[in-house]
Amino acid sequence: MILFVGIPSEAPLALAIESAEREAVPHLVLSQRRWMFCELAFGVGAGRPQGALWLNEKLWPLEAFTGIYARMMEPSTLPESQRRAGVLPDPRQLTRLAFLYEILNDWLEIAPGRVVNRPLAMASNASKPYQAQLITRSGFATPPTLITNDPEQVRAFQAQHGRVVYKSISSVRSIVMELCSGRDDLERVRRLPTQFQAFIPGQNVRVHVVGEEVFPTLVESEAVDYRYGGREGFETDLRAEALPPEVAERCVALTAALGLSFAGIDLKRTPDGEWYCFEVNTSPGYSYFQQATGQAISDALVRHLVEGADLDHGSSHGAGRRKSG
Amino acid sequence: MTKFLILASPSDETALRTGLLLSRRHGPDAVAIRTPDELLLATWEHRLSAEGVGARVVMHDGTRLPEPGEAVVLNRLTSVEPLQFAGAPAADQNYATMESLALVVSWLFAFGPRAVNPPAPAALCGGVYRPMVWQALAARAGFATLELSASSSTRRFPAPPGHAAREDIDRLRDPHAHMAINTFQWRSQPLPDRRRPVFVMGERVLGDVPATTARASARLAELAGVSLLKIELDEHGAFLAADPCPALPPGAALTALAEFLESRLEAA
Asked: 3-state DSSP helix/strand/coil percent for chain B, to nearest 5?
């Protein structure tokens, strides 16, 4: 059975639930909007994680969920945690929700079966240059990068590379912007080191990897960051595209190397045919791409989760092992 | 030339003692101890390119920190907070903290196994797992463990007989737990009064324990992706807790740490 956790109306989760319903895959939805009506307990004793979930007036053993897809929001950002009609929510209930969130994350980390994705593995893009070092090991090129709080170094980097973009080092406020030449406010980088990268010309390709299945999407846009192209008046056109087999294999290997089984990989193919990797999204919002291209990413995700039942559940942490024979 | 860089808060006695010991063995110029505030006020040039990863970090006093490949780093920082944003709105403070953390993680990661411990994005000094994850890792490593569990409702899921609430585990506590008929809690068999420490330093395991426990200890460090780890056991050898950034008493453990750092320098 599959467990879906998060906000059921949020597009990526909604599409996955829809796929499970269409394929008649047994599943349960644990909506974060209804957490006040659910209870969870689990533990590790005798080397095996075990527990139970009370939901919909029923007790579900956690071991029954052989595949879990989670897209959880921080409880403090949920509408239930906000002031409503001038009334603050019960602080004790908020603490309980935060507790539930933390222990559910613990469960996702140690649960047997397939978990998309495990929380610690998802942390790699909290430091983009850290993740870039791992990406390089998988054989992809990454853009020349400078992180500095020295304006002179920024000027020299721009003189060396011509077009330069800047973006956050962490996953917070992650928008790519082009650095205009001759900016007179570069002194501001003295306050906080900033990440600059050589602009790589070419075509953006977003690759969703689900287990060993690969869904590449060609992104046609003039915007520096196509995700926000609309704000600058640029149109974005998405279409399904095939990848050279060796690039597809590299994407699958990179996803596995990061400890993930579902990833959104941002690539760029240069006019010279070189492939650059910019980032691996560890909780990809694939719905935008699926809806634009018709790629059956959510079906693949559900298939991948269903296969969790074939894993050896003696493994109590990590991705588990396939049953032999 | 700096061979050993120690990153620690000014009040970290283990860092100071380790620095002193290494200074005696290698001379004062071989060791640098830097605080998080000094680190964040430095001038940074962290580069990633096809040629590799470089980092030129120049401190406020003009000294340059060693580049990856030039030294061993003993990192005892678990977080960094840029002072220059202390008066900024909370969202900006959070942004600056996350950005600074992301930079320091990447920089330390570039030192490879010469960073003790290697950082992880979710943990600057590596291997900072929540208790339940440590518990699962310890069981995989071959340790007996206490039966640790968490419950969001003690009415629906009461504690097993003989188990006690573990208030040491989570900062999230029910303020009315003492009078509520239903609460949330961590619990386990009662913790013993006495704990036996075991230290893992690379391939060395320090502690008066049987060979099987020593092997499980080394395996636990490996599973956690750390080379320095303190493990606490009960008198029967059951796993209680682990700490990848332990305070070390003066004596054999501190000497062993210095020797371990020296071995990392040689293992380049």
From this structure: 35, 25, 45
Q: Which H or E run contains A16?
A: helix A11-22
pLDDT at A11 over 60: yes
pLDDT, one tens digit per residue, over A243-298 is 999 999 999 999 999 999 999 999 999 999 999 999 999 999 999 999 999 999 99
Mean pLDDT, rounded, for A133-140? 95
Residues A210-220: pLDDT tens digits?
Answer: 999 999 999 98
- Amino acid at site A204: N
Other CB atoms within 10 A of residue A19 CB: 22
Asked if A145 is an interface residue toward chain B (Cβ–Cβ < 8 A), one would say: yes
CB contact at 8 A, A103 and B152: yes
Residues of A in contact with B151 (CB under 8 A): 39-41
Strand pairing category for A262-269 and A203-210: antiparallel
Element at A151 (helix H, strand E): helix A151-161
Neighbours of A138 (CB within 10 A): 18
The pLDDT tens digits of the residues spanning A156-203 come to 999 999 999 999 999 887 788 888 877 778 899 999 999 999 999 999
Average pLDDT rounded to a whole number, residues B142-163: 93
CB contact under 8 A, B148 and A317: no
Measured between beta carbons, which residues in chain B are less than 8 angstroms from residue A109? Answer: 130, 132-133, 136
Rounded CA gap, B101 and B58, in Å? Answer: 18
Chain A residues lying within 8 Å of B85, measured CB to CB: 191-192
Say whether pLDDT at A319 is over 90.
no
pTM above 0.90, yes or no: yes
Distance linking the first and last C-alpha atoms of chain A = 22
**Residue A38 burial (CB count, 10 A):** 19
Label residue A261 exposed, middle or buried (CB < 10 Å: 0-12, 13-18, 19+). buried
The pLDDT value given to residue A16: 98
Q: Which residues of A touch B172 (CB under 8 A)?
A: 95, 98-99, 102
- Is the separation of the CB atoms in B128 and B121 below 8 Å? no
Identify all chain A residues contacting B122, using CB atoms and an 8 Å cutoff.
120, 123, 126
Q: How far is B24 from chain A (nearest CA, A)?
A: 34
Cross-strand bridge partners of residue B47: A146, B54
Interface contact flag, B150 A147, Cβ < 8 Å: no
A192/B46 Cβ within 8 A = no
Asked whether the beta carbons of residue B95 and residue A173 sit closer than 8 angstroms, the reply is yes
Evaluate whether A278 touches A227 at the Cβ level (below 8 Å).
no
A58 in contact with chain B, both atoms CB, cutoff 8 A: no
Helix, strand, coil content of chain A in percent (nearest 5):
40, 30, 35
A36 touches chain B (CB under 8 A): no
Q: How confident is the model at residue A312 (pLDDT cuts 50, 70, 90)?
A: low
